[in-house]
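Quality-control log, excerpt.
Job 1 of 2 completed; input and output follow.
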Amino acid sequence: MAELKREAVQRDCGQPAPDEAAVVAYLKDNPDFLARYPELLEVLELRHGAGAAVSLIERQVEVLRGRSNRLEDRLKQLLEAARDNEKRAANVHKLARTLIRQPTLAALVGGLRKCLREDFEVDETFIGLAAGALKRDDIDGLVRLDAHSPVLKAFDNFFRTRIVECGPLDAERARLLFPQAKALPQSAAVVPLEKEKGLGMLVLASVDPQRFQPRQGRLFLEMTADLVAAALRAKLG
């Protein structure tokens, strides 16, 4: 169709019609062309998918309006993310204060679980420590991991790689970690404590299957693990 139009112009004018790419290039190099020839705005037409014709300036207004709407939506998303980050930063600060103020190891674990439940929507918390670091096994939520611990077998890949794992939590492992839970968690984040030294593991779990996702950010989880590990070290001696 474009070739037929070009041939028609050639016959009418007796000169070769300009190549479309050349026209496009010229207009890009001369963005004020239509400002110098405003009468063209009244005759140029663009057609919608439905077939209705509109002037070029009306189409430009429509395009600019759409771009403005997209920018406004993006700004709203950025503002919401900023508010979420500000809230999360405040909660992390509160968590740090909570851990520092606890007088005993048992109080530390209890304060951690309470803070995570109230401020971070974490329904269950599990802390497993290497047998060389923890000599007792009488604190709820704090488990000593020796060579025969079923947790080591259930999470063998995690202990081999010591990489943060996020995603669904199957019923078997959920019962192993949280035997007293009223409702079994459906998703969890498994985070190493002192990755290089192998202090242990921190598991944050939720009954919401969408709470922890494989592709979610790791920064908060790693920060929380660092705080917990430091607080534990202070109490373990």
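Job 2 of 2 completed; input and output follow.
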Amino acid sequence: MTEAEQLAAGFETHRPYLHVLAFRILGSHADADDAVQEAWLRLARTGGAGIEDLRGWLTTVTGRICLDVLRSHRARSEQPLELSVGLLTADTATDARANPEDHALLADSVGLALAVVMDALTPAERVSFILHDVFEVPFAAIAAILDRSTAATKMLASRARGRIRLGTPTAADSAAWEVVDAFLAAAGRGDVAGLLAVLAPEVEFRGSRPGGGTLVVRGASEVASRATTGGGRGTPAHRVLVDGMPGILVMTGSRPVTVMAFTVAGDVITVIRALNDPDRLAQIVPSWVA
């Protein structure tokens, strides 16, 4: 048997596993078939040189392919980019109390859960949850697939796990986006009345001061005034999901300059959080955005 034949035979050994993995992530047998075939093509191009753990290598490659497919699907449907910024406080206490049996039960029921809420998860949440909770891929390996830190990858899986337990979609629904869009439009026009209409009376803005430290502005009038007099008006803002919440990303050329996250309750904004640290933004915003 030639080396090429041995490589093909090794791949065929793992093909069923790869198809199940891709199908769990993508939710489509056709897409899973395409992803597995692409994994084979990439393996064939490498010739298998230097690959010590073929299953691990194929898991990583297939995971990346699936992530690209999910992102492509979202781009075609004009879904926002997702960012794990850490601006919002993660509810990890409940997750930390969950024992291994709870995680196993959740993984066993993922088929039903996927049909209910998987489409509401961001691509990164989906990949992180499926690979870790269903296929027991270590977080360090998933972090390499997602181009995130291990801590951020754990948070993605935790957030996905929480949403699947609750059986509810992301808070960034169409109604929340409408409120955020109205805020941005009013800010762009310098329309104070329009801003007050979508800001809760006790709304809070949290950002960073130019010289360091945290800036906190409270009250609808104060936040509206800041929104109409602050810099950046007229700069294009792109929709993003910030830790699962509606937000915006402002870019100057290919450089991210500001990320803002909005907490929406009912038809008003209750909290606005902003991040403009260039070093941190460079780590958070993936290179494929530019």
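Post-run check on job 2. The mean pLDDT is 79.
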